[in-house]
Design goal:
Layout: H1 2-11, H2 16-34, H3 39-53, E1 59-65, E2 68-75
Antiparallel strand pairs: 1-2
Helix pairs in contact: 2-3
């Protein structure tokens, strides 16, 4: 197995520039989360950082309480304003 892995890695070199950039983005996100002082702030920062790291349009963090799902934190950049589109449904 190890021999096969070495052969594959020799054929497909790892791009260190892209990997270093991804690690730098991840480290910056972890640092931003570490600065938060409240649970609400941590969840909001997590939604914001995940949106950026995953290059997503938005992020919602939900909590299940019994049979209900509540939006706990979200990040909706762009035309959504300060409320998420799901705010009236949670």
């Amino acid at each position: 197995m190890a021999g096969k892995l070495r052969r594959v890695l020799k054929q497909q070199p790892i791009e260190m520039g892209a990997a270093a950039s991804d690690l730098a983005r991840l480290a910056a996100a972890a640092s931003a989360l570490g600065r938060e002082e409240s649970v609400k702030g941590l969840l909001e920062a997590t939604a914001r950082e995940l949106t950026g790291l995953l290059e997503a349009a938005a992020c919602v963090i939900s909590e299940v309480e019994g049979e209900l799902v509540h939006e706990t934190a979200s990040y909706w950049p762009g035309n959504f304003g300060s409320r998420s589109p799901f705010a009236d449904h949670s």
